[in-house]
C-alpha cells in the first residue's frame, strides 16, 4: 500500500479546471517531486492534501485513511506536515515558539492543567523542548533560537519553516518550493537536508520545486504537470527527456 | 547586559529569566501589598480602580492582543459579570462562590456568542461586537425584574473569608481582594502563554493557514479564547460593580468598550505588561487632567469650568500619537529604552525596525 494516494482528483474554480483527473501515489521512504510551469496546479495539489480545498471529484488516501473525511486541522494528526510557498510563519513569535507550535498535535494536557501549569503540563513542555532541540541541532538553528521571526533574513525563515514542519514528527513532509529565493549555497544545504530527512529520519518527502538541479539531485521519482493534468511520471532523467514535458516548457517545434 | 547561561530546559519554561528578575517582581508585589500603609484613602481607591481596569485589560488582551480578534463589545461582558455577581449575592449565595461563578457565566455566554461572531473577520467582527455592546444597554432595561432596569442596583458589602468587604467602609480589604484577583489572573495568563494553548492563540493571530496545517483547530481555539477573555472580563465587571457601589444600564456603555480597547493599544498589544501600563494611563489620566487644569487655571488666571469632552479629546490624541509613533505601545517603548541602556553605546535606531502592528486578521482572506 502506498503512503499517499490520489485517485482521479479533480478541482474546479468556476470554469477553470485547476486539477484535472490527477492520479498518483507516493511510496513510503521516497522523495517525490512535482514539477511544471507556473499555474500547472502544483501548489493546488498541496492545498488539496492539506484539505484547504475540497476536490470536485476523486479520492485522497493517506496511510489507508480517507483524508477527505477530516477537517483541515485534522490532517496534521495523521502525520502530514507542510511548508508554504510564501512563508507562513508566526511573525511575532520567536523561532522556538514557532517550533513548539509544531508540537501542538502531540498535546495531551487540557485547559485546566495548563492554566495551573500542573506537573503533567511541565513534563509535556520538557518533552516538547527535547524534540524541538533535536530539530534545531539537525538544521543548525541554534543561533536563532530566541530571535523573533520578524527580524530574520529570508533564507533563515525558509529553514525555520522546514524545522517547524519537522517538529510535528511527520510521516510525510510536503515542501512547497523549498529552494525558491535561496542562494546557491543555501540551495545546496537544502539538498543535503532533504537527503538527510529521508535517510536519517525516515520521512517521506513530497515536494514542489522549480530548481531542476535540486529535483534531479534528491528525488527518486518526478511527476510533471501542466494545466492541472499529468504529463509524465518517472525518474528525473526520464521526465526531463519526455517529449510532452519539453513541449510544455519550450513550446512545439514548428 | 545580563546574559543568562542556560543549562536546563526549565530555565526557558519558568516564567522568570533569573533570580534577579524574580526578586524584582516579588519586590513589586510586596510594595503593592503594603500600599494601604503608604497611600491615603483617595489614592488607594484610585489604585484599586487601576487594578480593576488591569483585570479587564488582561481579559481583552487574551482575545485582541494574543488571538488577534478585535472586540469593541467587552463592556457588555463587564455588565454580565457585574450583574451576575450581584444577583447571586442578593440571592444569598456567599460572595466567595458567587464571584467565580459570575466569571464562569460570563465566559460561557461569551463562548456561546463567539460561535457565530468568529465567522467574521477584522472590521466586521469589530462591528458585530460593537452592536453587542449597544444591545446590552437595552437588554438590561428590558430585563427589569432581574436587573432593576434604569433604577439600577446597589452593591451590598460582601463577605470574604469571614471579613466584610466594602468599597467605602473597608477600602484596604477591598484593595487586597482586587490585588488577589489580579495576581491570580496574571499567573494563570503567564501559565497559559507557556503552554500549547497560549501558543496556539499566537499561531491563530499570526497565520491561520499554517496554524491549521500544524493541527490547530481555528474555530475551537478562537472560541476558547473568547470564553477565557470574557470570563476574566466578567470578574473585572463584578469588581467594578462593587467599586462603583451603584450601577444601572448606563454604567457599562459603549464608551467603556472603546476605552478598554484603547487601553490595551496604548499599553502594548500582545503583552501582559501592556494591560497594566494601559490601565495606569486610563485610570490616572482623568485625575491628572483635573489636577493640571487647576494648575493651568491658577497660573494663567483662566476659569476652572469643566470643558465638555476634554478627557476624550485627550484620550483620542494620545491614541493617535501611539498608533503613529509607537504601535507597540508603552511596553514596546519600555523594551526599547531598556535595550538602549543594556547595549549602551551600541544601540541602533533600526533594531526594532521590522515590527508591525497586530490586528491583521483579514490578511488571509
From TrEMBL, chain A:
Residues 4-252 form the ABC transporter domain. Its EC number is 3.6.3.25. This is Sulfate/thiosulfate import ATP-binding protein CysA. Gene3D superfamilies: P-loop containing nucleotide triphosphate hydrolases. The gene is cysA_3. The lineage of its organism: Bacteria, Pseudomonadati, Pseudomonadota, Alphaproteobacteria, Rhodobacterales. It comes from Falsiruegeria mediterranea M17. It is an enzyme of class 3 (hydrolase). It holds the Pfam family BCA_ABC_TP_C. GO terms for molecular function: ATP binding; ATP hydrolysis activity. Keywords: ATP-binding, Hydrolase, Nucleotide-binding, Transport. GO terms for cellular component: plasma membrane.
UniProtKB/TrEMBL annotation, chain B:
Keywords: Cell membrane, Membrane, Transmembrane, Transmembrane helix. The chain crosses the membrane at residues 20-38, 44-63, 70-89, 95-115, 122-143, 174-192, 224-246, 252-285, 297-325. The keyword Transmembrane applies. It holds the Pfam family BPD_transp_2. GO terms for cellular component: plasma membrane. InterPro entries: ABC_transp_permease (IPR001851), LivM-like (IPR043428). It comes from the Bacteria. One of its GO terms (molecular function) is branched-chain amino acid transmembrane transporter activity. It is a multi-pass membrane protein. This is High-affinity branched-chain amino acid transport system permease protein LivH. The lineage of its organism: Bacteria, Pseudomonadati, Pseudomonadota, Alphaproteobacteria, Rhodobacterales.
